[in-house]
C-alpha cells in the first residue's frame, strides 16, 4: 500500500467518525443496525449478493451471522 492510499483511507474513515462518544448499543440495536447495513449493501451490490448468496440468504440472516458471538447469545436469551 502506498503512503497516498494510506492517507486517503485515513481521511475517508475519519470523515465518518463522530466527534462525541456514544453509549454502546444494546444487542437488539446492534442487530437492527447490522440488518440496515446488510440491506443497504445488498441494494447497492445486487449482482455480488446474487453471486455470493444466490438469494438463498436474506439480509436479516446474514446480519445475525456476522454479529459477535456474545451478542448472538444475548439475543437468544
Report the helical percentage. over 70%
Distance separating the two termini? 44 Å
Low-pLDDT stretches are 1-13
Order of helices and strands: HHHHH
Q: How would you describe the shape? A: flat
Structural class per helix/strand content?
A: mainly alpha
What does the main sheet amount to?
none
Number of strands: 0
Write down the oligomeric state.
single chain
Walk me through this protein's architecture:
The protein is an all-alpha fold and 77 residues long. It has a domain of 53 residues. Helix content is 71%, strand content 0%. Helix 2 packs across helix 4. The longest helix is centred in the middle third of the chain and has 18 residues. The protein is flat, with a radius of gyration of 16 Å. The N terminus is likely disordered.
Amino acid at each position: 500500500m502506498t503512503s497516498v492510499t494510506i492517507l486517503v483511507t485515513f481521511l475517508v474513515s475519519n470523515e465518518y467518525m463522530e466527534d462525541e462518544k456514544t453509549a454502546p448499543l444494546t444487542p437488539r440495536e446492534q442487530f437492527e443496525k447490522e440488518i440496515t447495513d446488510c440491506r443497504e449493501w445488498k441494494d447497492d451490490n445486487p449482482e455480488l449478493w446474487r453471486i455470493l448468496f444466490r438469494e438463498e440468504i436474506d439480509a436479516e440472516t446474514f446480519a445475525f451471522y456476522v454479529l459477535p458471538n456474545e451478542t448472538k447469545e444475548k439475543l437468544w436469551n
